[in-house]
Amino acid sequence: MKKPRTLRFWTVVLSLVLVYALVKWGIPVVSRQITGLPFPLTVPGTLMFIYMLLTIIALFLLVTFSEEHLAEFLDPIQRFLRGEYGKVTRALGLIVVPGLVGWQVYDVTIPKVQQPSSLRIQHPSSNFPKKNEDLKNPFASPSDAEVDAFIAQAQANEVSFIPQLLTDLESWADYTEPAHMLEAIATAPVRTFLRELQAGSVSRTSARAALLEKHLFEGRALYSMNCRPCHGDSVAGDGPMADGFKLRPINFTDNGTIETIVEGYTFWRVSNGGPGLPTEATPWDSAMPVWKLNLSEEERWKIILAEYDLAQKTPRIPESH
Ligand code: HEC
């Protein structure tokens, strides 16, 4: 059977349409299937450009492979121009094709009034429970009863630490044989407190300062166990894993981050992670884990205490204060 004479021409046209459709509509559909997100991933214009360019090059090679191929490809075009498919068809073709090209050029070049593309909202509050607004970090200002209990523990040299630290503290103690376990925290407020303890005249003020140091010590330890890979030693969002994320882990030393939000918001944000964010915080997916699954409330608050301290920042004060 003889091949239809227009086959090569239509192969070229259909290939172009098919590749365009695959990139334009196929990729978004497949991306929704894979990610399970309520919106498709956008296809960058450069990707479309590269695919279409490659397709055109491939088709050009195919058509110019031999004189025969080229002739076959050009044949229907020449016949069309000679009017062999009918004069009306030719007239229509000569109007429609330049018309479409002209329309496209007009559409691209005409100045347009457009809505600005929506920006990502760094601190979306649409699903932030209002009651969290006034949450206070329970470890930031210990009550008198807590301070007294701490003094009693310290006098008996039985200060309780979080379980994650026990192994390290024990091997440290075996090695250095300290007079008091609190010596593990080598900061001025703790030294003052230990001195007072030895002299037998403890003041609540220095005990409170030492207790805060203990909370910070634990918070820093939990921070380096859980958050450091992304947010970094210097809390500047430059941990060893940070470069792997398109939406970089937040730099807490930046004035636009944790300083601009109330503590309760930070707590909610750490608890719910990237998956807890509403859609206005997308399209970039945040790698921030959902910490309420792995850390207790107490651990999260201690980390937040240490986080603000390491960054040398203070949380925003709630409106109602
Ligand atoms: C896998 C990497 C990763 C780990 C581990 C991680 N984070 Fe994040 N975190 C991110 C990314 C990415 C963002 C930016 C996301 C965003 O803005 O939505 C972020 C954002 C945050 C924010 C929001 C700051 C702001 O101003 O909006 C806080 C607070 C935060 N992280 C705290 C923590 C704490 C505390 C830990 C440890 C318990 C932790 N992160 C562990 C990746 C991580």
What do you see in this structure?
Helix content is 55%, strand content 0%. With 321 residues, the chain is mostly helical. It has two domains: 7-107, no CATH class; 130-311, no CATH class. It is elongated. Bound molecules: heme C. The site of heme C has 27 residues, from helix 9, helix 10 and helix 11. Heme C binds next to helix 9, helix 10 and helix 11.
Q: Indicate the low-confidence ranges by residue numbers.
A: none
Strand content: under 5%
Percent of residues in helices: 55-70%
Q: Would you count the extended β strands for me?
A: 0
Q: Helical stretch count?
A: 11
- How would you sum up the global shape? elongated
Overall domain count? 2
In round numbers, the mean pLDDT is: 90
Q: Whole-Å distance between the termini?
A: 88 Å
Structural class from helices and strands?
mainly alpha
H and E order:
HHHHHHHHHHH
Largest sheet: none
Ions and ligands: heme C
- Using only C-alpha atoms, the radius of gyration works out to 34 Å
Which terms would index this structure?
mainly alpha; 2 domains; 11 helices; 0% strand; elongated; binds heme C
